[in-house]
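quick one, 460 residues, struct below
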Amino acid sequence: MPLPMQPSYITPLIYLIPLLMLGSGCTARYAANWTSLDARPLPKWFDEAKIGIFVHWGVFSVPGFGQYSEWFWYWWQSQKRPEEVEFMQKNYPPGFKYTDFAPDFHAEFFDPDSWAEIFKASGARYVVFTSKHHEGFTNWPSAGSWNWNSVDVGPHRDLVGELATAVRKRSLRLGLYHSLYEWYHPLFLLDQASGFKTQNFVARKTLPELVNLVMAYKPDLIWSDGDWDAPDTYWNSTQFLAWLYNDSPVKDVVVTNDRWGKGCYCKHGGYYNCADRYMPGELPDHKWEKCQSIDTRSWGYRRDMKLSELMDLPSIIKDMVYVVAMGGNYLLNIGPMADGMIAPVFEERLRGLGAWLGINGEAVYASKPWRVQTENSTVTVWYTAKNNTVYAIILGWPAKQPFQLTTPRTSGATKVTLMDYPDVPLKWAPVTQTAGLMIVMPTMPVSPGNAWSLKLEGVV
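---
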């Protein structure tokens, strides 16, 4: 088999314990059905956080090649995509297996405190780390992934545990990405062959590992994925979530997404991811999150990436502002190298975002969508609101003076300031008696992010 299995001396009993736990709590607040689970209020911290960092890291980081490099094994073995086939033929001997990459996943330069410092400097409030991708390799010592985890092979370290400690020391929330399925796990393939009428993989692998992650690391967020081949009834998703919300040690704070089975996207779960890079055309009526990678061609690290394929800082800020103004959270992805280094270009982008948020974060964190989300004058403007204050985030410095906003309705108490100079009120005048204001903008140096925020007090 291509994927090492657990040793025969591990009895099935260890897999039954979590399942027994799922059946506990007869007076539970949330029942194991979507009507009940979807009614659970989203913990407040998530909507207030707004910005997160996504981290894709695993054995796939060793070849680090091709579009969507985190799918390298699948492209090479199942799809036989020409790029990956040729890459392997040119660079590796005949008979080389994907699992042979694992010993080279050394992570020798992985410094969790250095990572956490960069994430904190980015202005993010939470981090979502890959505990296990579709390849099945776990970044923690899972009992169900014998010899296919980061302690038994490769780094010989509990990568999840080390990063969890580091990010929490910096008051960041911990999220764990977890793929429900694994491409080539024998038990999953057997269930798949049965048309998902059997649940051997779920009972012996998926649910025990999910419960293990919760009990061992107490994540604030579970980012589920790899669900699309089978319905939620196969994954026992509602049973797991009922336990998570009722009886788990994180029941009051944990947040989940919507990837819990075929047909669940944008319909069931805590908040909605919908499709990758989801961008709604109008204000959604449910909390959502956009995941977006700095490398526009991959989530995992690519050794062959080009600068032209990466988002620059103005593009990141423009994307983030759209998401926040539309009520979403922004989850920005990086793929570290196999040795544990974060590419300097990724670090530069994250620190640039943090510098911008250091000035303009008041317009982002804990904000809400305003009655109007955007307007186009000489530049694009996105609005957010907090308490009785409105923020106008302008993308690009206005070429004409004075700068005109047509949407806000002014009053005798209206005050306008630029977040760069919060103690210096700007001169303004009404456009009409009912709406709009003309603002005299100060002389400003070039901004690396090409975006500025106006604070509008006393407007509606």
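The domain at 13-363 is CATH 3.20.20.80 (TIM Barrel).
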